[in-house]
Structures are given as C-alpha cells and as structure tokens.
Specification:
Strand content: 5-15%
Shape: globular
Mean pLDDT: 96
Structural class: alpha+beta
Radius of gyration: 24 Å
Number of strands: 11
Helix content: 55-70%
C-alpha cells in the first residue's frame, strides 16, 4: 500500500530558516498575530487529516471508477462526503480567506504548504475545495457588498461550493469567441444560456448549493475578449433571507471519463436561461476571472510538488526494501541474499533527481506565496509594485515549470519500482495519471510559456526578469564564499541576462521566434529560480550542524552538477531559432507516408 508522511521538518525549515516567516509576519500588523508555533500546529493538523482521512480514499476512488453520473445527478466516491464535512468543520476551506467573511486570513506562504499535503494524498478531493476558494477570491475582489454577504460566508463554511465556467466546446484558450449569452432582465438579473465543458466540481453531492462563476456575453458586447462579462449563477437561487429557493436552470449534461483524477467530477454544464447576476462591470469579466485563474495556476504548481513528494517517499521506501544484486564495491549486506537497490548508482541518481526537484519546488512555491502576501499586506507602494511584477513573471513558472519537472520526477520515481511501478496496487501509475492534467488545465504549459516570453518578457523589453535577476544577484553577494552555489548563482544570472537580451532582440526580427522557443525559455527561467532557491537553502543550512540540514548542501551541489546543465541545452535550442520549426508546410503534418 502507498505511504505518505508529511515533510513537516522541511516545511518548518523553509518557512522559519529560509524565508524568516515569523519576522515577516511580525513586521506586518495584519499578520502579527501569527508565529511559527501556530503555523507548525496548523501544518501538523493538516498532516493528520491528509494521512488519516483522505489518503486511502485516493486509491479507492480511482479503483471504483470515481464520480458517478445518473440523469443529471453526480455522486462522489464513497467516503468523500464525510471527508469533505470534516474538512469544512475544521475550517480548512477558509484557511487563507478574508476574515470578514468567515475565513482565517492565513498568509499564502503558509497555505501553500497546507495545500501541498492534500495534493500529495488525494488530488481528486483537493479539487472540490480548491475551486470554492478560487471562486471566493474572485467574488471577494470584484463583487458587490451584497453579493459578498450573500455567498462568501457559506462558501467558506463548506455549506456551498464554487466553480469556474470558462471553456466551451469550440473555445478553450481563445475565450474571445465564447457563445454563452447573457440576456438582461428588468430586475437587473440576466438569463444565461450556453454550454460549458471541463467544469471541475460542476455537480456533486458534497454540499447544498453550487455557485457557478460564468463567463458570458451581453447583447451588443464588443467582439473578442473585451466583450466578456462575469456572472454568479447559483445552482439554487438564494432568497432574501439567505435560505435556498427554487432550482435554477443549470444542470450537468454528463461527466467526462478521464485518464486520472477520477474522483473529481468534471462536468458538461448546460445553462438554459439560468438566472445570473453580474459581478463587477459589464465587459470586464475576464479580469475578474483572472483573479481566480492566477490563484489556480499557482495551485497547479503545488499539485506538482505534492505528487512528486508522494512519489519520492514511496520510491525511496521501495528502494530501501527491495533486495537485488550487490554493490559494485562489494556486498553491503552480506547477511542478506542481496543488497538493497539503494546501493546502485542509477537508482540513487533517480531518487536524487526527484529529491532535488522537490526541495527547490517547495521553496519556490513558498517564495511566490510570500510575494503574494506582500502584494496583499504591504503598505509600501514601491514594495507592492515589485511584488506584483514578480508574481506576474513567476506565475507561469509556478504553474508550468513545477508541473513539467514534477511529471518527470514521478516518472523517475516509478522507474525505481521496475515492473512493480507499472502495477496499480503500488500507486505509482495512478500518481502519474492524476498529475498529467496539471500540465493541461488552467492554461496548458505551452500557453504559460508563451505568456512568459511575450507579455512578461518581450513586451516589457525584459524589465520584469531584469529586476528579478537583480534581486538574485544581490542575494548572492550575501553568500559565504565557501558555498559553491554562490559562483553558480552569479554565473546563471549572467547567462539568463544574456539569453533574455538575445530573445528580446530576435523577437523584433522574426514574429515566429518567441513562440517557437517559449518552452525552452520557461525552463531556463525555472532553472534560474531553482538555483536561487538552492542559494537560499544553502545559506540557511550552513548555519546548522544536524545531518538533515548539512545534507541539503550536498543536494544543492548535486542540483548544480547534474540538473542545472540542462540550461546549456535550453540555451542552445533557443539560439537555433524558429526557422526549422516553421520551415515545413502545413501539409507535411497531415500527409500520409
């Protein structure tokens, strides 16, 4: 059976030693009530819930076929409803939510670690509260006071849940061509008509009401994305006293049969003149929805961290127990029929690759979370501007790089099992199936790369990343000269600076260039970010004598020697340009041999 033990010691190290979380919290009056003792207590409770309540449900939901659909009614897998009720009663849905509406107001740099544990143990379950939290963020940011009062308190208690309804059968990345219509009524409401697909948690039996956030177009709206508005469309209309009224004209037409995350209901939603209520201003709906989508994109990165951590723990345990062959230097366990496969260099290589990814990914997620906290809580306008720019630059990295590297890591963890990794009972093949979607939903990783190289780099002539590199350079000057990661960090900064300059110039000469090299550039910036994280980890670990922390210095060296060389390959591919990518005619791709 799969195992999981929350990496609480590493989480404490990242928060307390690497990012000085308590000092950061105490410096802000809105967070001064929080200390590391409280933070660790929260993480310990989440560790218990994740391991004791939802871990076993992960496999049973997958084995049973997942969520079931019958004539518009969706039934979640056995155990999910009770687990969701426990989750809601524990206050976990509103952990990071606005206290005014019943949330606990915890900072993002803490909630990313709580989220990681749920992603590790049951990603299908995580998607139900995740969409609720995201919808709540959009409502909190854009809705009227009355709408906030009506919906947010019950969403954060888990009495109601939320969704995000964007995609249509003909409209995925290009939301400007959606067909869902919003016809105004005399009472200020709208009749919403259209079909949305791939709607996570669109219908289920976990709570009493589902609050759909729907993108639609009003009559005579401008063409394209400038003509999209955002609407609240509840499954059950809400009476003036807050009680539930009549059923709205929205229903699930079917659920998708998926490769993974089977316990999560992914629905086709039909809106047949359903009553909706505009959120924010007309034709500004996409901006409101992006509040939610950017939150989800960071969450997808955390899904990657969680999956990779789960995979590592199980692979390391298997490698410890599995006896095959002898060490090349002679038997390590002569009293046994064979040595543990941990003595073999290739197995160690794979496990170290996974571990190196996990520790950098976790630190990076917390770093981005801290930047989000700065944008929310700081009163210094210039500090907030820098943090906003950093979040804009790094959100594509968090979403795409953390999930790209996580999938590779889980594949290497699976390989440690040999044939057993391909067998369902060991849990690795489900881990891979469940994780694959993280590279696809909330904007495919290719789209994230295009966003990074376009709007976040060439459009601003590299200003965002120049400021990020300057931050990293400044930090590198504080490192002990004895740490090899210091010189490595300085070198990587030089390389990314030169690479970005090349990209900005080439994009002016060839309109195909940026899109053709976008994924390689995203991975290059990801490697820069991981180098930065290992610089910060190394500085903190150097101050400690315990083996657990000293081992991090070795892992940082491993990253620099064995993982970071991928930067040279990415750079070479970028310099190769777009010509060979775009040279062949379209007919080539459909021509028969």
């Amino acid at each position: 059976m799969p195992i999981y033990n929350a990496p609480l010691k590493d989480m404490d190290f990242i928060l307390n030693d690497v990012f000085k979380a308590e000092e950061f919290w105490q410096s802000n009056e809105n967070l001064a009530h929080l200390d590391m003792a409280t933070a660790n207590a929260i993480l310990e409770e989440m560790a218990k819930f994740s391991k004791n309540v939802i871990l076993d449900l992960n496999r049973s939901a997958d084995e049973s076929g997942g969520a079931e659909f019958n004539n518009g009614v969706v039934t979640t897998p056995a155990g999910f409803k009770d687990a969701f009720n426990q989750f809601a009663r524990g206050g976990w849905i509103g952990l990071g939510a606005n206290e005014e509406w019943g949330g606990q107001g915890m900072p993002k740099m803490l909630t990313v670690l709580a989220d990681e544990m749920i992603w590790s143990t049951n990603p299908s379950f995580m998607l139900y509260p995740l969409l609720t939290v995201g919808a709540g963020m959009a409502i909190n940011d854009r809705a009227s006071q009355e709408q906030k009062e009506t919906y947010l308190p019950k969403m954060y208690t888990g009495e109601w849940s939320g969704t995000m309804c964007l995609t249509e059968p003909h409209s995925g990345t290009d939301l400007g061509i959606i067909k869902t219509k919003a016809e105004p009524n005399e009472d200020g409401s709208y009749n919403i008509t259209g079909t949305k697909i791939f709607i996570t948690s669109g219908e289920h039996d976990l709570c009493d009401n589902i609050i759909h956030l729907v993108l639609a177009k009003t009559p005579n709206a401008p063409a394209g994305s400038r003509g999209i508005s955002l609407f609240i469309v509840p499954k059950f209309l809400v009476n003036a006293d807050g009680s539930l009224g009549e059923r709205n004209a929205v229903a699930a037409g079917s659920i998708e049969h998926k490769m993974g995350i089977k316990g999560s209901s992914t629905c086709v939603m039909n809106f047949d003149g359903a009553k909706g209520f505009m959120v924010g201003k007309e034709n500004e709906g996409l901006a409101g929805m992006f509040v939610m989508m950017n939150y989800e994109r960071l969450s997808m990165g955390i899904q990657g961290v969680g999956a990779s951590e789960y995979a590592y723990q199980n692979a390391a345990q298997y490698a410890t127990d599995r006896l095959q062959g002898r060490a090349t230097t002679g038997a390590k366990s002569p009293e046994k029929p064979a040595d543990s496969i941990l003595v073999h260099g290739d197995v160690r290589r794979m496990l170290l690759n996974v571990r190196a990814n996990n520790e950098a990914s976790r630190a990076f997620a917390v770093y981005v979370g801290q930047q989000l906290d700065i944008t929310k809580y700081s009163t210094d306008a210039e500090v907030v501007r820098k943090a906003n720019d950093r979040v804009a630059l790094l959100t594509p990295i968090a979403k795409a790089y953390l999930t790209d590297t996580a999938l590779q890591a889980t594949l290497e963890a699976q390989m440690c099992f040999g044939g057993h990794g391909y067998i369902r009972e060991w849990g690795m093949e489900q881990c891979i199936r469940d994780l694959r979607i993280a590279q696809i939903y909330e904007g495919t990783n290719g789209v994230q790369a295009i966003d990074l190289i376009g709007r976040k780099t060439t459009k601003c002539a590299g200003a965002f990343i120049a400021e990020y590199i300057a931050e990293i350079r400044e930090f590198a000057t504080t490192l002990d000269d004895q740490l090899s990661i210091k010189a490595t960090t300085q070198k990587v900064c030089d390389e990314l600076e030169a690479l970005t300059t090349f990209i900005v110039e080439q994009s002016k000469l060839n309109s195909d260039f940026s899109n053709s090299v976008a994924v390689d550039y995203l991975h290059a910036v990801g490697l820069l970010s991981f180098t930065y994280m290992y610089a910060r980890i190394s500085q903190a670990a150097q101050q400690k004598t315990e083996v657990f922390f000293q081992n991090k210095l070795v892992l940082a060296q491993y990253f620099a020697a064995k993982v970071l060389p991928d930067l040279a390959a990415r750079t070479q591919r970028i310099h190769a340009g777009a010509e060979l990518v775009m040279q062949l005619p379209e007919e080539y791709f459909t021509a028969q041999a």
